[in-house]
Every structure is written in C-alpha cells, then in structure tokens.
Amino acid sequence: MAFEDRRGRLDGRRTDGGGHVDFDIFSEQQMVRPWPAEHEKVVFADTIEQAKLADEAGFRCWWTVEHHAATEFSYSSAPELTLTAIALNTRDIHVGHAGVLIPYQINHPIRVAERAAVLDILSGGRLELGLARSGGLEWETFGVDGDTTYDQLRELYELLPLLWTQDTVKWSGKFYDIPERSVVPKPLQKPHPPLWQTCSSLDAFYMAGSLGIGLLGLTLLSPLALLEASIQRYDDGRRDMRQATQVDNNQRAVFTFVHCAESREQAVASRAAEAAMWYVNAAPRVFAVPRSIWIDVIRGAPIDTRAISAVHDEDVMGDLDPDDPHPLIRLMNRQALGMEIDPDEAYEVMEPVESVVIGDVDTCARKLRRYAGIGVERLMALMQFGAEPPDFDFIFHHGQ
C-alpha cells in the first residue's frame, strides 16, 4: 500500500477561538475480510508506515490498544512491541498505550512497570501510558472476576509509580503481594510517564479525575451531550482530587471516527459512515458484550458497565429491527442483517451525529469546534476502521 507524503498539507494541531485541540491518531490495527495474502504482515507493515507519516505530519501521539482474540477487529495483542517498532521508526510523535489491561491475570504490575519503562527508554521519553479494565470475552479468556477490576485499577495506580521511582518496593495489598524487590529498568521520564485511564462510565470519569489521571474517553456514535456530562464528572473528580501518582495529568482525550474529505461527494463515496457502523456492529461479537449497551448509548442513555460481562453468542446482537424508528439504529440493524445500504442515506443519517467527524473540511471543522467547546483537548482520531482504508488526507486550516 502506498502512502503519499503530505508534508505541508497535514497539520496535527488546531487552535480554535473557543479552545485548543491537539490531534492524535488512534489505531486498532484493524483488517476486515476478505484478507489479502499475508494479511497479518500487511497489518503491521501498514501500521508502521502510517505512524511514520503521522510523525512527519505533526500529530502529537500514536495510540494503540490491547485486545486479545479479536479477529478482524484488532491485531494489537502485543502493543508494547508494536509501539517500540513505531518509536524506533519515528522522531517526535509520542507512543500511547490505550491501554494496558490491568487485571493481574492478564498483566502483572511488575511486568507492566518493566515493559513500560523499556518502551519509554527506547522511545526517548515519548511514552504515554493508559490503563484499562477490559471486559467481556477478555475477562472470560483470562478468568477475570470483573467485579474486582475497579479496585485492581485503583491499587495499580498507587503501586505503579512506586515501582518506577523507588530503588526497592515491598507491597502487600488486596490483590498484589510483592516481596521486597528492585524493579529495573526505570523510565526515562522523571518521575514517571503520564498516566491515563480509559473511561466509559460516570464512576470511571470521576475516579480518573480524583486520582489526577488523564482521561481517555470514547464516543461510539453517542451524542456529544453524554460526553459533555462525563467530562463534567471528570472535573468533579478533579475538584476532589487526592493525587495517587507523582505526575498530575490534567488532560481530556477522546477517541472518535474521523474521515475528512475534500468534498461532501468524496465523503459519501468513501463509505466511511458505513465503516463506522460496521465498527459498532462488530464490537459486540468480537468481545461477547451485549450490543444493546451501544444501542442504548446512541439513543442517549449513559453506558451501563454492569452489562460488560461475556454473554452467549445468541444473546449478543439482540433486537435487529430493520424498521427501528431511530434512523441510525435502523441502518445499523439493516447492515447487521446483511441488507444493502445506500451510501447517500448512510452519510445523511451519520452527518447530524456530532461525535462522528466524517465529511468535508468545513463539516469536520464545525464538529471539531464542538469538541473544543466541551473541554476536549486531544482528539484520538480513528482514521482506519472497518473496510475504510487508511486515510491521512486530514486537512485542517488554522483559523477556520
């Protein structure tokens, strides 16, 4: 796959009158069927080339996730290795892990500290580290009790900075017991890299704010009013903050779908709107999580993290009414049923969704101003999703 050098046309940063938004890239390392020959090799080669271009274009950070057994949806099962390859092939762009799956059955705290420190050293101090509770199929795969994950997350935020900054650490906690040990190496950044938390529920937003942790949010086709309320809850936590780490990370970053085209016609022809629908339709099957969680969010309901536990295949997709009165959910249901979708209709239905940045330059700029207006400081732009090929023709003009 060829990647055109667009230096001078791409800008990873935008300043609006009502706020400032830095542009990051968010990568699932996604490739849907039908697959080309040696498709797994292609996924990783493309990822590194995209990251190199993003570095040249001035994007602030390349974020990748940690997922396991997520066929088609994500090949990012060893993100520290991928981010190391990216770091060694770039100069300025930060490498972000969004995020390490924190249940100790998946990643022990000492291993988290060691791998992150090595990545920080090899990247020249460019690491930004997020932590995530995981859920659904991944809990089932590794035998995780989901009810313990919030407490594990809180404990790790206290333990991890000690592992990074103290010569020796002895720890006896609720989930982790560590004899006195010297953990090496230490990160290059002092006292340690900035920490982030992936957040979906209001409780998680408040917790991140109260611990002085950066916010990693997501939209998944939901109204921006829900995100605005969640950010306000994060700010509530900041007012009650008892800083658990040694680095106060007061930043609000949000992941969403991005495809910026030269014209509306090109945006329609790209079928990016359908690709965004595919993403949300695919996630329930990949992670064995009820699709109703995301459908309810599209309707405007806060996400219910109590429903994140794995379910049987026949229960995942739920109601697929092809005549649902909600226009976006109706098209998503039809897509899930294998029905043909008109690209013009898909775009028209997606265009009013404020959280989805798909359209021509003016449309994208208008939506980005809305993000800035509710306090988002960093947009984690997912530019390659579903059948949508990697597209970095993301043209922003300062002052628009």
In short:
The protein has helices at residues 39-57, 79-88, 109-122, 136-142, 149-165, 202-210, 224-239, 264-270, 272-287, 292-298, 313-316, 327-336, 343-350, 361-373; strands spanning 13-16, 19-27, 61-64, 94-101, 127-132, 169-172, 177-181, 195-198, 214-218, 252-261, 357-360, 378-382. It is α/β, with parallel strands linked by helices and 400 residues long.
How is this structure best described in words?
This protein has 400 residues and is of the alpha/beta class. The chain contains 14 helices and 12 strands. The chain has helices spanning 39-57, 79-88, 109-122, 136-142, 149-165, 202-210, 224-239, 264-270, 272-287, 292-298, 313-316, 327-336, 343-350, 361-373; strands spanning 13-16, 19-27, 61-64, 94-101, 127-132, 169-172, 177-181, 195-198, 214-218, 252-261, 357-360, 378-382. The strands form 2 sheets. An 8-stranded parallel barrel has the order 2-3-4-5-8-9-10-12, surrounded by 7 helices. Strands 6-7 form a two-stranded antiparallel sheet. β9, α7 (224-239) and β10 (252-261) form a beta-alpha-beta unit. α9 packs across α12 (327-336). The longest helix has 19 residues, at 39-57. The radius of gyration is 20 Å and the shape is globular. The chain starts with 12 loop residues before the first strand and ends in an 18-residue tail after the last strand. The model is unreliable at 1-17 and 394-400 (pLDDT under 50).
What level of helicity do the residues show?
25-40%
Radius of gyration: 20 Å
Distance, first to last CA: 32 Å
Mean pLDDT, all residues = 90
For the biggest sheet, the summary is:
8 strands, parallel, barrel
| Number of alpha- plus pi-helical segments | 14
Biggest sheet, spatial arrangement of strands: 2-3-4-5-8-9-10-12
Report low-confidence residues grouped into runs of 5 or more: 1-17, 394-400
Global morphology:
globular
Beta-strand residue percentage? 15-25%
* Beta strand count: 12
Structural class: alpha/beta
The helix/strand series, from N terminus to C terminus, equals EEHEHEHEHHEEEHEHEHHHHHHEHE
